[in-house]
Amino acid sequence: MASLIMSPSTKQYLASSSLSQHSNHSRCRYKTTSLSFSSSSSSISLPQPQQGNNFIDFASPEAVRHLVGSLNRTEGLRFAVVVARFNEIVTRRLLEGAIETFTRYSVKEEDIDVVWVPGSFEVGVVAEKLGKSGNYNAVLCIGAVIRGDTSHYDAVANSAASGVLSAGLNSGA
């Protein structure tokens, strides 16, 4: 389980300065059609299906829009990572990968706080508290629930996922 909770200011920063939209419709061999939905501001262009050889080809990789995020200015951004100690053999390696990724994007180590919790069940509660604190631009949640012979896995995995989702919704991120 890994989830990223972002503050509204981080979402605005990413949307305004570093999210680019790549459209390859100009190289597409399909005709495009504009479809309107109930909102006047929503429209989408879809390729017209081409018939041949007893099948209809609706899309190709060139016809698909790609949204690519980029984080190239990290100064002033603070991050928290909530990590479950249970199954630490897994979560520690996930944490190491997260720290390496932060470093690759020029995030300074002093801008990252790591908070250890007993298990995946507690990750969401702590993530919500950190998210509501206003001290972090994003909270990363790391936990590992390993399936065993009992139904315990389902209960913990569902509760942990629900807790992380709830943290994101309740912290305003």
UniProtKB/TrEMBL annotation:
Reactions listed under catalytic activity: (2S)-2-hydroxy-3-oxobutyl phosphate + 5-amino-6-(D-ribitylamino)uracil = 6,7-dimethyl-8-(1-D-ribityl)lumazine + phosphate + 2 H2O + H(+)
Catalytic EC class: transferase
Record function comment: Catalyzes the formation of 6,7-dimethyl-8-ribityllumazine by condensation of 5-amino-6-(D-ribitylamino)uracil with 3,4-dihydroxy-2-butanone 4-phosphate. This is the penultimate step in the biosynthesis of riboflavin.
Gene3D superfamilies: Lumazine/riboflavin synthase (3.40.50.960)
CDD domains: Lumazine_synthase-I
Family assignment from sequence similarity: Belongs to the DMRL synthase family.
PANTHER family: 6,7-DIMETHYL-8-RIBITYLLUMAZINE SYNTHASE (PTHR21058:SF0), 6,7-DIMETHYL-8-RIBITYLLUMAZINE SYNTHASE DMRL SYNTHASE LUMAZINE SYNTHASE (PTHR21058)
Molecular function via GO: 6,7-dimethyl-8-ribityllumazine synthase activity
One GO cellular component, as annotated: riboflavin synthase complex
Leader sequence segment: none
Pathway in which the depicted protein is active: Cofactor biosynthesis; riboflavin biosynthesis; riboflavin from 2-hydroxy-3-oxobutyl phosphate and 5-amino-6-(D-ribitylamino)uracil: step 1/2
The UniProt record lists the keyword Transferase: yes
Pfam family, one: DMRL_synthase
Gene Ontology biological process terms in this record: riboflavin biosynthetic process
UniProt name for this protein: 6,7-dimethyl-8-ribityllumazine synthase
Enzyme Commission numbers on file: 2.5.1.78
Keywords linked to the UniProt accession: Riboflavin biosynthesis, Transferase
Keyword Secreted among UniProt keywords: no
InterPro entries named in the record: LS (IPR034964), LS/RS (IPR002180), LS/RS_sf (IPR036467)
